[in-house]
Write a structure and sequence with these properties.
single chain; seven-stranded mixed sheet; two-stranded antiparallel sheet; 14 helices; 50% helix; 10% strand
């Protein structure tokens, strides 16, 4: 879900070409959920190997990463660690939504309703620990860097961007901005068109850039105040205040200057954990033990992992390896020139 502040955030469309030569910290779980949602069979079920293991996320990760490298972008995938305890309610709600969606998917399949089955299958997507570990194996074999965050991946991505080790964080959600990322790139790991679930309408997905300074300047807020706006409207860590959306939350914080004063003046009933949530956004657990450098491609290992273990088409994998090798060689030449 992420912080509910989208209507307040100025965004600028950019092309992959504008990101050439830059490293970007990618929210790995966010990207893999996108792949799970998009890469599915006719009835919405994910791709699987002969042992029943899901491979949709590996398929998306392989080809989208190659596409980014070919465009001169170095993705550094950041994996979530244990979530903070106050995220438990959100995680339970997500689990309940998935379970309902799974039951509705089965009914839609039984009735032969392909469109509804697809939508419900997407809503039931689940990313397991085993799937995440498979993704790390794939990235290592590809020579693509990844980082294990001590807690939230978006917090770690923000830290890496703020430290200057990557140019931006990349996610569909806006939490990286709240965590202090100077730049956020959206729509980086997905391409094509997005179809609305409830209407036969689609729109083209183009990368978008969000800059923290531009957001704060437009809203005339500090980052602390922006965090408080998000808390009022609702985040992954708190439910927000009933009846208050992002625009009303913004008006309240702008008028009173702080959530404490707004809550007192307006008699707001707010989750008691909100102060802890604010502190988590301001001072999240992160690590400085990571590398953003491209590694070595293991051609034999990659072919074995995808073809022999995960039943990928050998012809397509060999072609992917050819493209990957060329992209890594190009990146290596650029790195030598910069030195």
């Amino acid at each position: 879900m992420g912080a509910q502040i989208s209507p307040l955030i100025p965004r600028v469309r950019i092309s992959l070409r504008k990101l050439a030569g830059k490293a970007v910290a990618v929210d790995a779980y966010n990207a893999m959920y996108q792949f799970l949602a998009l890469i599915r069979t006719e009835y919405g079920t994910p791709l699987r190997d002969r042992r029943g293991r899901v491979t949709s996320h590996l398929n998306g990760l392989l080809y989208r990463t190659i596409r980014l490298l070919e465009a001169g972008v170095t993705p550094v995938y950041v994996f979530d660690g244990p979530p903070p305890r106050f995220k438990a309610r959100e995680l339970e709600e997500r689990k309940a939504v998935r379970e309902r969606a799974m039951a509705e998917w089965a009914k839609a399949v039984e009735e032969g309703d392909l469109r509804r089955a697809w939508a419900k299958a997407v809503a039931s997507s689940r990313l397991s620990r085993e799937m995440a570990e498979d993704a790390k194996v794939l990235l290592t074999l590809m020579g693509v860097p990844w980082v294990q965050a001590p807690s939230e991946g978006e917090a770690q991505s923000a830290y890496m961007a703020a430290s200057g080790d990557v140019w931006a964080a990349a996610s569909q959600d806006y939490d990286s901005i709240l965590f202090g990322a100077p730049r956020l790139v959206r729509n980086l790991t997905i391409t094509g068109r997005k179809f609305l679930r409830k209407r036969p309408v689609s729109y083209r997905l183009i990368p978008e850039l969000v800059e923290l300074d531009a957001v704060l300047s437009r809203l005339k807020l500090s980052r602390r105040q922006l965090i408080e706006v998000a808390i009022l409207a609702g985040t992954d860590y708190n439910q927000g205040v009933y009846g208050i959306g992002p625009k009303k939350a913004y008006k309240l914080i702008s008028r009173y200057g702080s959530l404490e004063k707004a809550a007192e003046a307006e008699k707001l009933e707010i989750d008691e954990s909100w102060v802890e949530v604010r502190e988590f956004y301001l001072h999240p657990p992160v690590t400085d033990r990571y590398s953003v450098e491209l590694g070595e491609l293991d051609e034999d290992g990659l072919l074995s992992f995808l073809v022999e273990e995960r039943d990928f088409d050998p012809r397509r994998v060999r072609e992917a390896i050819r493209r990957l090798k060329l992209a890594l060689q190009a990146a290596s030449r650029v790195a030598r020139l910069e030195v």
